[in-house]
Fold this sequence. Notes:
This protein is of the alpha+beta class. Helices cover 34% and strands 21% of the residues. The protein contains five helices and six strands. β2 (57-58) and β3 (64-65) form a beta hairpin. The mean pLDDT is 92.
Amino acid sequence: MVIMEIDRRSDLPTKKLPVKWVIVVDRDLPRGLQANAAACLAASVSQAAPAILGSGGLDASGQAHAGLPWTGCTVLAAPAAVVKRVRDDAAGDPELLVTDMAAIAQRADVYDDYLAELAGAAVEDLSYFAVSLLGPRAEVERHTGRLPLLR
């Protein structure tokens, strides 16, 4: 899927958009790790699909505020095994942009060390703190439709 080709519809409620973005987080992680994983995936998605960012705006005082995703982003919760299953199933879907945060990312203090460990790990051996899916609403919901919101 090429997110750049999706019409920007910042005039519609997110539930009526043809595109949907969700992040599924391991529900059993401590809150700080959940927040970190979601933030890291948001940064990853905004680089991979910059078209999802809306324009910034000014408040009544003239202060600038950076643009936010016009698609919205729903953060869902699931057990670690379900996060992995969602990631593995969605990764094969050509209509979706799938980004993930493998658990090994949290262990590494140096990014190059993370990349080296990742390069030595088979995908079936990885566990994930979170996965992000962006794409056509029906496809995203097919993979995540019954998962609850992270609370």
